[in-house]
Amino acid sequence: MDKKLSNIQERKLREAQARREHIIAVVKDLIKKGGARAVSIRKVAEAAGFSTTVVYALFRDKATLIGQAMDKDLLALVHAMRSASEAGTGTWERIGLVGRAYVQYGLRHRDEYALLFMELRPHAAIAAVEVEHGNIEQDPYAYALHLFGELAHSGQVRAGEAALHAMTQIFWQALHGLVSLRIVMDEGDPWTPHMEPGPYLDDLLAVVTEGIRLRFQPELPV
Question: Global pTM?
C-alpha cells in the first residue's frame, strides 16, 4: 500500500513539474511577442490550456512567473562565465575572459538576454526563484563581484563593499551597453558605423579594466 501511495505521489510530482515547465515556456513566448507587459496570470492560463487556479497553485504571482522563466537563462549565463574564467592565470585575465563570455552569450542568445536584462518587469521575491541570490555558482552578478573581491584581497584594488559594487557595476554596464545596442541596432543602421566583435571587444575590455584599475587603486597607508 505504501509503495502504491509513493508511486502516486511521484506521478503527481512529475505532472506538476511538466505543467510548470509548460507554463514557463508559455511565459517566455508571451514575452517574446509582447514584452513582460503581455504577461498576466489569465493570459498565461489561457495560452497554456490551464485554469488560473492551476497557475496560481504553481506560481504565487506574475513576478514569480517571470522570475522563474529567467532561472535557466541566468544559470546558463553564469556557467558560461565561470567556464571561460578557468583558462585565466590571474584575476585580471579571468575578469577579461568573463567579460568576453558575457558578451558572447548575449549575442548568441538574444531573446534570452533581452528577457534577463532588457525587459521592464516586476521583480520576484528572492526566495521565489531557483537561482540563489549571492551564490557565485548561480548568480552572475555575485560571481563578478567575487572576482573583484579577489583583486581587493590581493591588494590590487581598493577594498570595501561600496568600491567592490562600483567596480562590478561599471564592468557590467559596459558589457551590457555593447550587447544591448547590438540587439536593438542591426548592421544596416545608417546612423552608427557597425563595429565587428573581436578587436573592438578587446579594446572595450582593456579600457574598462584598466580604467577600473587606475580609478580604484588601493589607498596608500598614511
Answer: 0.83
The span from the CA of 222 to the CA of 205, in Å, is: 33
The CATH number of 69-215 is 1.10.357.10
Q: Where are the domains of the chain?
A: 1-59, 69-215
pLDDT higher than threshold 60 for residue 222: no
How far is 215 from 222, CA to CA, in rounded Å? 19
Residue 42 has which C-alpha cell?
489569465
157 contacts 163 by C-beta, under 8 angstroms: yes
CATH architecture of 1-59: Orthogonal Bundle (1.10)
Task: Classify residue 31 by burial, with Cβ atoms within 10 Å: 0-12, 13-18, 19+.
Answer: buried
Which tens digit of pLDDT belongs to each residue from 148-180?
Answer: 999 999 999 999 999 999 999 999 999 999 999
Distance from first CA to last CA of the chain, Å, rounded?
76
CA distance 203 to 201: 5
